Amino acid sequence: MDVNQINAYLERAREIIGDRSRAEIDYDDAVVANLTAGMDIKRSIAAANQKYPTEALRPGPEDWADLADRYQYIKEHKAILKRLGVSE
After folding, report:
1. Alpha-carbon distances, residue 15 vs 10, 11, 23, 34, 44 (angstroms)
2. Does the pLDDT at position 65 exceed 80?
3. pLDDT band, very low/low/confident/very high, at 87 (cuts 50, 70, 90)
């Protein structure tokens, strides 16, 4: 992968994930860590909500599939960044 491809990937990832505050990044990292540890999305979010109550999500039944997709994307993105040696 060349530098232009990496930059294009990073730009697109920023568009998908969106701008986040440090607290939102910490919350998202907690959800991803929970997913990586084997929790499902509902348990991952519940645990992150306890750790970061000011960032807590309160999804409705119709939101779970989108949240699962979002956090799977963030999880994969973090793995790609690690392989590239790039920090967030």
Report:
1. 9, 6, 19, 24, 24
2. yes
3. confident
As given in the structure block, the two tokens for residue 70 are: 């979002």
Mean pLDDT of the chain: 95
Q: Say whether pLDDT at 23 is over 90.
A: yes
Instruction: For 45-64, give one letter per residue: b (16+ CB within 10 A) or e.
Output: bebbbeebeebeeeeeeeee
* Residues 52 and 23: beta-carbon distance below 8 Å: yes
| Contact residues for 6 (Cβ-Cβ < 8 A; gap 6+) | 84, 86
Cα(85)–Cα(13) distance, integer angstroms: 16
Name the DSSP letter for residue 37: T
Q: What is the reported pTM?
A: 0.90
